[in-house]
Amino acid sequence: MDSTKVVKKKKSMFHHDSKLYRDEHRAAFLMIILPVLGFLIFSLVPLIYSVFASFTNWNGIGQMTFTGLTNFKLMLKDNYFWKTLYNTFFLMIGIPIGLILSFLLASALSRGLKGTTFFRVIYYIPVISSLAAIAIMWQWAYNGDYGLVNQVLALVGIKGPNWLQNVHTVKPAIIAMSVWKGLGYSMLLYLAAIQSVPKSYYEAADLDGANSFQKFKNITWPMCRPVTFFLIITNVIGGSQIFTEINIMTPTGGPEYSSATIVWYIWQKAFKNFQMGYASAMSLVLGILIFIITALQFYMNRKSDYQLS
Amino acid sequence: MAKTASVGVRRQSRTANVFIYIILILGGIIMVGPLLWMVSTSLKDKMGVFQLPPQWIPNPVRWDAYRRLFKLSDMYTGFKNTIIVSLTVTIIGTMTSSLAAFSFAKLRLPFKNTIFLMLLIALMVPYPAVMIPQFMIFSQIGWVDTLKPLIVPGLFGNITMIFFLRQYLQSVPDSVIESAKIDGAGYMKIFISIIFPLIRPAVAAQFILWFMGAWNDYLAPLIYLNSPEKQTLQVVIANLSATYATQTDYPLIMAMSFIALLPVLIVFLIFQKQIIESVALSGTKG
After folding, report:
1. A75-128+175-308: which CATH number, 1.10.150.120, 3.90.1150.10, 2.30.30.30, 1.10.3720.10?
2. Residue A9 confidence (pLDDT)
3. Alpha helices, DSSP H only, in chain A?
4. Of all residues in chain A, what percent carry a pLDDT higher than 70?
5. pTM (2 decimals)?
6. Where are the transmembrane segments (chain B) (predicted)?
7. B105 and B216 share a domain?
8. Which is higher by pLDDT, B9 or A51?
9. Residues on chain A touching B135 (C-beta within 8 angstroms)
C-alpha cells in the first residue's frame, strides 16, 4: 500500500497535472491504435510468416515441412526465375525515358503559355485510368492486322509486327505503354518543382550573363533533383512489382516467357501451382532486392548532396 | 536600340512558343488518341472494326455494343462489388487515417515518433512480399471468395494518407488546440470541430486518390475471388475481354473497358484542380 502511494506521489511531482496528461495519452493512443494494429496484422506478421515459409515445402493446404535452403538452391537453378527477374529489370528502361520526356514537357509547360491547365489535365488522364482497362485497350491497339499502332505506322509506310506475339517487340511494346501511362504524373511533379524555383535565381543568373542552357543546367535541373530522386525511387519500386498489364496483355507470359515478370511468376507459382513455399522464398528475395536498391539510391543521393555543397 | 532588341526577343520567343505548342499538341494527341480510338471502336459493329482504312468517326454510329453490354450480368455484379469495396474502404479508412494523423501531429504520447517511423517502414514493404501469407491468414478464417479481404485491411487506415495529413497538420499552430483544451473540449470534439474543417481540402484530395486506387485494384481481387458473382469490375472486364477476344468482338470489349474507367474519369474531371494540386504538392514534399 505504502509503496504505491510513494510511486503516485513521485509521478505527480513530475507531472503537475498528471490526469490531463493521462487523458491526452489515452486519446492519442486510441486514435492511432487501428493503424498500428493494421501494420502488425497485415504487414509485420505476414512478413515474418513469409520468411518462415521460405524455408519450407508447402502447398498452402497441408503441413509445412522444413526443407532448409532447398527453395533458394532451387531458385539458383530455375531458369524461369532468372528470366523473369531479367525481364522485370529490362522493362525499367522505360523509367529514364519517361523521366526525360516528362521533364521536357514540364519545361515547355512552365513557360506559362495559355492552356497549361488544359494540357495538364489531358496528360494526366492515362494516369488515373484503370490499368486493367488500359491494358485491354493497348492489347487491341497492338493487334498485328487492325491495331491502332500499326495503322498509324502504315500511314508512313511501315508494316508493323504483331507486337505482343513477337519475342523482340513485346518488351518495347509494354515499355511504350508504361511510359504513356506514367508520363502525366512525372510531368506534374516536375512542373511543380520548376515553378517553385525562386525567380530571383534566374534574375541573378541573368545579371551574370548566363545563357538559357547554363540556367537550365545550373538552376532548373539541380532544383528538380529531389523530384527526380523521388520519381526514380517510386518508379523502381512500382516497376519491380509490374503485374496487371503483363497478366492481361500476355496471359501466358508472352512468347517464350519474354514478358513474364517476377511478380507474375511468383503469382503463377503460388496461386496456380500451389508451390507456396517456393513462391514465398522468391517474394522474400524480391523484397530484399527492392530494399537494397532503395537504400542504395538513398545512399547515392546523400553522397551527391555533399558534392553539391 | 533597346526597343528593337526587345521586339527581337519577343519575336524569337513567339516562334519558340509556336514550336512548343506543336509539341504539346502532338503529345496531347498521343495521350488521348488511344482513348478516343477505344470509344470509336466501341461505337462500331463487329465488321466495322476490320475496315481499312479505319474510320475514326464511325459511320453509322452503332450503340449495339453498349446494348449487349448492359445485358451482361457480370458487369452489374462487378460494378456493385467494386462500389461496395472502394466506398467502404475509403470512407471508413479515411476517418481512421485522419484521426491517427491528428494524434501523430498534435497530441502527446510517449514513443509517438518511433511508432510513426515504424508505420512508415510498412510503406517500404512491397505487396507481393506479403500477399502469400496474407492469403493464408484470410483463408484460415474462411474469408477467401468474399469481399472481406479487400475491405478489412483498408479499414485500419492508409499510411500514405496519415503521412500527408500529418504533414499538413504541422502547419496548424498548436495554440489553436491548446486554447480549445483550456476551454475544456474533449479530444474528439477538438478533432471534429477544429481539426477536421482545417484539413478538409487535404482529406478530400487524399480520399479521391485512394478511391481511384481502390477502384482500379486488380491483383488482390484476382487472388481472393473465385466465383463470378463475387468479382470486382477490373477482374470482370479482364475475364470478359479474354472470352470475347476469341470471338473478335472488339466493340464489346472496348465498350466495357470504357465503361469501367468512366466513373473514375468523371471524378477526375470534376475534381481535377484539387487532385492535380494535391499530387503536385505530395511530390515536392515527398
Report:
1. 1.10.3720.10
2. 45
3. 2-14, 18-39, 45-53, 70-77, 79-91, 94-109, 116-128, 131-141, 148-155, 170-195, 199-207, 212-215, 221-223, 225-239, 244-249, 262-267, 276-308
4. 92
5. 0.88
6. 18-39, 83-104, 116-138, 150-169, 190-212, 250-271
7. yes
8. A51
9. 270-271
Tell me which residue has cell 479482364. Answer: B238
- Confidence band of A91 (pLDDT split at 50, 70, 90): very high
| Residues A183/A126, Cβ–Cβ less than 8 Å | yes
Q: Which CATH number fits the domain that encloses residue B177?
A: 1.10.3720.10
CB-nearest partner of B128 from A39, A41, A241: A241
Is there a contact between A28 and B112 if contact means CB atoms under 8 Å apart?
yes
Residue A203 C-beta-side C-alpha neighbours within 13 Å: 3
- Select from B31, B241, B286 the Cβ nearest to the Cβ of A230: B286
Number of residue pairs across A and B with CB atoms under 8 Å? 279
Do B117 and B91 fall into the same domain?
yes
CA distance A132 to chain B (A): 6
Same domain, B94 and B214: yes
Q: Pick from B18, B43, B62: which residue ends a domain? A: B62
Number of domains in chain B: 2
**Grid cell 503559355 — which residue?**
A113
Contact between A146 and B49 using a beta-carbon 8 Å cutoff: yes
Q: Nearest CA of chain B to the CA of A263: how many Å?
A: 7
Of the residues B13, B36, B62, the one at which a domain ends: B62
Domain carrying residue B78: 66-285
Taking contacts as CB-CB distances below 8 angstroms, the residues of chain B near A107 are none
Question: Tens of pLDDT along A40-81?
Answer: 999 999 999 999 999 998 887 778 889 989 999 999 999 999
Local confidence band at B1 (pLDDT 50, 70, 90 cut-offs): very low
Q: Are B80 and B105 in the same domain?
A: yes
Of A38, A240, A243, the CB nearest to B219: A243
Model pLDDT for residues A207-250, shown as the tens digit of each residue: 988 888 888 888 888 888 888 988 998 899 999 999 999 999 99
Q: Is the pLDDT of residue A184 over 60?
A: yes
Domain boundaries, chain A: 1-52, 75-128+175-308
User: A15, A31, A101, A162: best mutation site toward chain B, by most B Cβ within 10 Å?
Assistant: A31
The DSSP code for B170 is T
Chain B residue numbers with beta carbons less than 8 Å from the beta carbon of A145 are 50
Using a CB-CB cut-off of 8 Å, the residues of chain A touching B14 are: none
Cα R_g (chain A), whole angstroms: 27
Q: Lowest-pLDDT range, A26-30, A295-299, B110-114, B252-256?
A: A295-299
Same domain, residue pair B19 and B131 = no
The confidence band for A271, taking pLDDT boundaries of 50, 70 and 90, is very high
Q: Are A270 and B132 an interchain contact pair (Cβ–Cβ within 8 Å)?
A: yes
- Distance between CA B160 and CA B151 in Å, rounded? 17
Task: Point out which residues pair with A65 in neighbouring strands.
Answer: A57
Sort out which chain B residues have CB atoms less than 8 A from A287's CB and list them: 125-126, 128-129
Minimum CA–CA partner of B283 in chain A: A189
Residues B22 and B102 in one domain: no
Same domain? B103 vs B228: yes
Q: Which of B1-15, B41-55, B62-76, B177-191 comes out lowest in average pLDDT?
A: B1-15
The CB-based long-range contact list for B66-71 (8 Å cut-off, 24+ gap) reads B66/B42, B66/B255, B66/B259, B68/B252, B69/B252, B69/B255, B69/B256, B69/B259
B47 and B75 in one domain? Answer: no
Specify whether the CB–CB gap between A266 and A279 falls below 8 A: yes
